[in-house]
Design goal:
The chain contains 11 helices and 13 strands. It has 335 residues and is α/β, with parallel strands linked by helices.
């Protein structure tokens, strides 16, 4: 298949492109290579992909309407996987406009491209952050998600609503991917594992929020990628038993679906730090901090739908995943 992967220089986009190329798909990768974090890391990811003759990279911003229209005119895609986004909860308080430009304006351009070129299936990154103030756990796709706690979360919920609208109006099959705290080799420098590993190896204090009373459903990158590939292959169908009297948020009367992609096994933040200490062979200097605005104390994914529909469930143990990251980090930075 010919597959468009947006955010191809990003953490998940890079992993997905690599997996698709390995199985023989043609991948058109786009990325704006912004400087939200070190561009060299993004370029080094692309260097891993570029030797593959099935890969074609185009530097392009999702918010560039004319550029996006030309992209969809130049190529007929069998699948579109939109992983490009302005990521990060805390940065959305510093630079809200970046989230609107990329996650809202950019996503409309994706939807319009898919609509006009009749793309058979759009899958797109959502986030566990859409669960917001919900406290009933594990989080289920069947739960209502009307109380986001950050602009980032609101932009991801907006993507799900926008995708549903296009499914309803134009019959565009669309699947939302609610990722739960992705980690692993080639990960983002703004995420906890990267920052903690760097701090511990450099004998610098690491900031631990809510005094360590946090837990996350950490999900290893290979499990995320495997899930996305399987979901991308599976075009969603309308749910014949869907009812407007008791609307199910996870499905619809149109070809629309959302899936949690998580490890279904929350890890306490202090246990996560212990796993990094074990992998690095060094003790962390811990700086206990209060809870940050927009953050949530815990995440926990119900992945029954994922397992039922694509016969796969993320399961990489935290010690194993953290060790692989630390090994990659030492190799990449020659530490």
């Amino acid at each position: 298949m010919r597959i468009l992967v947006t955010g191809a220089a990003g953490f998940i986009g890079f992993g997905l492109a690599k997996k698709l190329l390995a199985r023989g798909d043609e991948v058109i990768g786009i990325d704006n290579l912004n400087d939200y974090y070190d561009v060299n890391l993004k370029r080094d990811r692309l260097k891993q992909l570029e030797p593959n003759e099935g890969f074609n990279f185009i530097k392009l911003d999702l918010a560039d309407r004319a550029g996006m229209e030309k992209l969809f005119q130049d190529y007929q895609f069998d699948r579109v996987c939109n992983l490009a986004a302005q990521a990060g909860v805390r940065y959305s308080m510093e630079n809200p406009h970046a989230y609107i430009d990329s996650n809202i304006v950019g996503f409309v351009n994706i939807l319009e491209g898919c609509r006009h070129s009749k793309v058979p299936h759009l899958s797109y990154a959502s986030s566990s952050s859409v669960y917001g103030a919900n406290t009933k756990q594990p989080f289920s796709e069947h739960h209502n998600i009307d109380h986001p706690m950050s602009l980032y979360a609101a932009s991801k919920k907006a993507n799900e609503l926008m995708a549903h609208t296009y499914s309803s109006l134009y019959g565009l099959p669309a699947t939302g991917l609610r990722f739960f705290t992705v980690y692993g080799p080639w990960g983002r420098p703004d995420m906890a594992l990267f920052k903690f590993t760097k701090g511990i190896l450099e004998d610098k204090a690491i900031d631990i929020y809510n005094h360590g009373n946090m837990s996350r459903d950490f999900t290893y990158i290979d499990d995320i990628v495997e899930s996305v590939v399987r979901i991308t292959d599976k075009i969603p169908a309308a749910n014949p038993s869907w009812s407007g009297d008791q609307p199910d948020p996870a499905t619809s009367y149109v070809p629309y679906r959302v899936y949690n992609i998580g490890n279904n096994a929350p890890v306490k933040l202090l246990d996560f730090v212990s796993a990094i200490e074990k992998a690095t062979g060094k003790e962390a200097i811990r700086n206990m901090m209060p809870m940050q605005p927009g953050d949530v104390p815990s995440t926990y994914a119900d992945c029954n739908a994922l397992e039922t529909d694509v016969e796969f469930k993320p399961s990489t143990p935290i010690d194993e995943g953290v060790k692989r990251f630390v090994d990659w980090y030492r190799d990449y930075f020659q530490v």
